[in-house]
Amino acid sequence: MAHSVPAGQKWWSGGKSPFNVEYGKLMMWYFLMSDAFTFGAFLISYGSIRFATNGWPDPNEVFRAFPLMGDTHLPLVFVSLMTFILIASSVTMVLAVAAGHNNDQKKVTTYMIWTILGGIAFLSCQAWEWTHLHSEGAWWGRNPFLNSDGTAATTNFTNYFFTITGFHGFHVFSGVIINIIMLIKNIRGDFAKRGHYLMIEKAGLYWHFVDLVWVFVFTCFYLL
Amino acid sequence: MSNEATLHGHAATSHGAEVHHDEHGHHHKETFITKYVFSQDHKMIAKQFLITGMIWAILGGLMSVLFRLQLGYPDAHFPILEDLLGSKWAKGGQIQPEFYYALVTMHGTVLVFFVLTGGLSGTFANFLIPLQLGARDMASPFLNMLSYWFFWLASVVMLSSLFIETGPASGGWTSYPPLSALGDASEGSKTGMDLWIISMALFVVSSLLGGLNYISTILNLRTKGMSMTRMPLTIWALLFTAILGVLSFPVLLSGFILLLFDRHGGTSFYLSDIFIASTNKALPNEGGSAILYQHLFWFLGHPEVYIIILPAMGLVSEVMSVNARKPIFGYMAMVGSMFAIAILAFLVWAHHMFVTGLNPFLGSVFVLLTLLIAVPSAIKVFNWLTTLWKGNIRFTPAMLFAIGFVSMFISGGLTGIFLGNSTLDIQLHDTMFVIAHFHIVMGVSGILGMFAGIYHWYPKMYGRYMNNTLAYIHFWVTLIGAYLIFWPMHYEGLAGMPRRYLDTSGWLSFNQFGGLNRMISTVAMVVFAVQLLFVFNFFYSIFKGRKVITQNPWGATTLEWTAPIRPGHGNWPGEIPEVHRWAYDYAKDGRDFIPQTEPLGSNESAH
Q1: Among candidates B179, B152, B177, B157, which has minimal Cα distance to B168?
Q2: What is the structure's pLDDT at B607?
Q3: Distance (Å, rounded) from C-alpha B464 to C-alpha B544?
Q4: Closest Cα in chain B, distance from residue A98 (Å)
Q5: Rounded Cα–Cα distance for residues B190 and B170 (Å)
Q6: CA B428, CA B5: separation in Å to the nearest integer?
Q7: β-pair partners for B586
């Protein structure tokens, strides 16, 4: 486990990593910063357009359906479920990383499977939600929902909703693919042979980031 | 499990294995494909970036010759143009308006992104970072290779857009909507615009993969003793460049994704209340904002100009110190001012948008922040001048280009003070003054810095020298020509002559510039011809140039000159060098220079 760091260790003097991480992890962190700017640009664009527009639909009215429940009024219940699933998958990811720290190949497999299932469940929920909204007439360039004050809305509510949740969904999809590759590598024993589960940790960083972005997307589209 | 364990674990596997292999001094079994095409050697990737960039520079330069022909001789007919380009683009030997706009758009895109970003950073970050830091290669040679091939793909897509029926993108290199969003609005907003966006998206991927690699390599793979403050300024410059790229290009990507949806998804991100005259149609789009695109674009667009100029500054600092045989003046001030430039780069983008109806108060904030850039820029300029002061200057071609860079950067920087003031900008916006300003301070300065780098590191790249006589001709014609081309444009701009117009002879007030425009166009052609001389010199010298026979021909302190004359993959046979001092021990203790690898003497203290 953790080595004791000698006092007066000069981390920046060359010959070693100043942050004590190997290059792949450093690259993942910088990639995530870059990706944060992509999402940031999307969300700030959304915010600027929304606040330059007179009215906006009420999310409680738009997002009120639940699968197999017919014409219900359950505002934000379904999206709360989605959010719960994604956060739960983050928890199992943490457990997978922790199992990796203990070099426990079997547990890594178990928790990676749970994480992948969580990701797939989230994507399925999103697919249902999109299908449902589409059946109500919503799509890029089409917005059937009225502003909360009853006036006609611009299409930018749906434009931004589908673009940004779609971009986030694409990230989740990529994350699931990455996690599946990690799972296969783990089952083949690649990490056990290597003696460390750093790849799982890096996949975990990405997965947590995607989760964190969802918190912002969720806040911006469903709560505000 | 600690990171220490993983570091060691890693070193014994993928990366380490490769390095290990080289240490035994026998070569990889390299095929032509793995050595020259899908190479993972940073030096080969650097050359790939350089030569691709050179091909783009020739094409982009040729475009400028074509539209200068139009600007200088608006009434003349050149039948050869019709023969070469067809009657759609050059009917009767005259450049047609759509073609003119396509030319200026592609000239800007190609020079800014493919030459001065891909060609400049791609070449020197790849070549110098591992060599000057004492690393065997980049942190991830594989991602590095991908970075080049994404650049190549972007190049192919952009190039292909020149050959489609409706022509390439022609809405300006900034591609502002609504023009760029509406295929009905112009020929160039049809398929050409889609290819432009796809190509730029691939370019962003390339830049991201490269940038992540540069940052991780600089932070993680410095050799023993190479603390951050012992790094040559080239590396500092490339580090800040990479950080700017990693943080600003994604915003552009977001802007492009929204633009694609506006083009093909029926969305209204940038569109509102539009009537297209050509189809006599009012569009249903409502609620969008064209200004939003400008914010997203310039959030990249401004850092982008520092992505271009910072590497040039780094190369110039290094070349200047080596050839003045003096330590660079104010090393920490140089690093600090580059850091300040990198921070300010993100805080000034709206100075491109003073005339968009920006709130004047907000405008004044951006004026203040913009003018603040003069401080670090001036620090750098004075440091270069004081480096030259009482130096033992060797006027090698690289040194001439470095001095030319400083001259250009001062000239162009001063007009930046004009344009940074929103009140003056209202008068000068969209005039030839702006063209003069950014070509001098960014375009010409950037390319002069790049030439300094090419001439200086050519012996390291190919083990041969370029021809000096041709190089001196290249330098003087380029420098004098660049001033002759761009200096008069200030006068035109101050008189109100607009940019982006293919023919201003309809205005009596601009007729006085007819002769001046012909002069500019003539010089532009001469300068272009001299660049072909450079290209000839470059390729001829690869095969026939004078051979380098000493390991350190310039008498430089940095690590790349401790490697063999033609280093293999892995750079140093045997151990990598250890560093004991900073990169600028010139003319010290009665010695001409002391390499970074030399341990401190008993009478020295650590730097």
Answers
A1: B157
A2: 66
A3: 8
A4: 10
A5: 10
A6: 60
A7: B593
Share the mean pLDDT of chain A: 93
CA distance B203 to chain A (A): 15
Tell me how far apart the terminal alpha carbons of chain A are, to the nearest angstrom.
Answer: 45
* 3-state secondary structure at position B593: strand
Q: Where are the domains of chain A?
A: 23-223
Q: What is the nearest CA distance from A119 to chain B, expressed in angstroms?
A: 24
Mean pLDDT of B325-343: 97
Q: Residue for token digits 């449902």?
A: A132
Cβ <8 Å between B212 and A27: yes
Residue B481 and residue B439 in contact, taking contact as beta carbons nearer than 8 Å = no
Among B212, B273, B300, pick the best mutation site for testing chain A contact (most A Cβ within 10 A). Answer: B212
Could you report how far apart the first and last alpha carbons of chain B are, in Å?
Answer: 36
Token reading at B600: 């401190």
Long-range contacts of B376-381 (CB under 8 A, 24+ apart): B376/B336, B376/B337, B376/B338, B376/B340, B376/B341, B376/B344, B377/B337, B377/B341, B377/B409, B377/B413, B378/B413, B379/B330, B379/B333, B379/B334, B379/B336, B379/B337, B380/B313, B380/B334, B380/B337, B380/B338, B381/B406, B381/B409, B381/B410, B381/B413
- Do the Cβ atoms of A140 and B265 come within 8 Å? yes
How far is the C-alpha of B129 from the C-alpha of B221, rounded, in Å? 10
- Which residue from B227, B249, B267 is facing A140, i.e. has the nearest CB? B267
CA dist., res. B106 & res. B104, Å (int): 6
Chain mean position to CA B257:
24
Residue of B nearest to A103 (CA): B1
Cβ-based burial of A223 (10 A; exposed 0-12, middle 13-18, buried ≥19): exposed
Q: Which two tokens stand for residue B340?
A: 């300040």
Phi first, then psi, for residue B276 (nearest 5°) are -100, 120
Question: Is pLDDT above 70 for B106?
Answer: yes
- Out of A49, A100, A167, the one facing B292 most closely (by C-beta) is A49
Q: Which of B225, B254, B261 sits opposite A41 (nearest CB)?
A: B254
Closest to A18 (Cβ–Cβ): which among B219, B247, B251?
B219
Amino acid occupying residue A159: N
Asked if A103 lies within 8 A of B230 by C-beta distance, the reply is no
**B147 and B38 in contact (C-beta within 8 Å)?**
no
Which pLDDT tens digit goes with each residue over B145-200? Answer: 999 999 999 999 999 999 999 999 999 999 999 999 999 999 999 999 999 999 99
Flag if B228 and A48 touch (Cβ within 8 Å).
Answer: no
Asked if B289 and A49 come within 8 Å (Cβ–Cβ), the reply is: yes
Q: Which residue has the tokens 């994350």?
A: A175
Which among B4, B223, B285 has the least Cβ separation from residue A14?
B223
The ipTM value here is 0.94
Residue B142 CA to residue B157 CA, distance in Å, equals 23
Q: Is A140 on the interface with B (CB under 8 A)?
A: yes
pLDDT < 50 positions in chain A: 1-2
- Chain A residues inside the 8 Å CB shell of B269: 45, 49, 156, 159-160
* Average pLDDT of the residues in B506-527: 95
Contact A194/B at CB under 8 A:
yes
Q: What is A23-223's CATH number?
A: 1.20.120.80
Nearest alpha carbon to residue B319 among B565, B556, B598: B556
Looking at the predicted structure, is the pLDDT value of residue B1 above 70?
A: no
Does A11 reach chain B within 8 Å, measured CB to CB? no
- Structural domains present in chain B: 37-593 (1.20.210.10)
Tokens of B111: 């020079």
Structure tokens belonging to residue A144: 């059937």
User: Under an 8 A CB cutoff, do A14 and B251 touch?
Assistant: no
Q: Tokens in use for B422?
A: 């929103």
